[in-house]
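To: structure desk
From: M.T.
Subject: fold request, one chain
Message: Could you run this one when you get a chance? Sequence is below, nothing fancy, just the single chain.
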Amino acid sequence: QLQLVESGGGLVQAGGSLRLSCVASRRPYSSHSMGWFRQAPGKEREFVAARRWNGGGEKYADAVMGRFSISRDSDTSTLYLEMSSLKPEDTAIYYCAARVGSPTTWASDYGYWGQGTQVTVSS
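Reply: Done. C-alpha cells follow.
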C-alpha cells in the first residue's frame, strides 16, 4: 500500500505563490506515476499535473501550463507542486494521487489518493 499525505495549502492573494507537498509512506517504484488533481466546490475533480516518479512524461492541464510545476525529491519520497501567478479560479482542494503505469489525466486511473489540502486564492 502507498499512503499519501498532502500539505502546504493555505490562503494567498491573487498573483501569489504556494508550494504543495505530498509525502509517500514509502518510496514509489519506478513503475509509478504521480499527479495532482483539484476539486472546486460544486465541480468535478480535475487534472492538474502528473509525471513519472523517476522522471519524464510530464503533463499539465492547459489552465495551469506555465504557472505550475511538478517535481519530486526521491530522498524524501515527496512530490511537489509549485504554483505561481495564482488566480481565484485556482481555489480548490488539491489532491495527490499515484498509479502504476504511465501518467494520465484521468482521476479514475489513479488508485492511491491523499486526503487533500485546501488552496484559497483571494482577489
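Reply (cont.): The mean pLDDT is 97. Let me know if you need anything else for the meeting.
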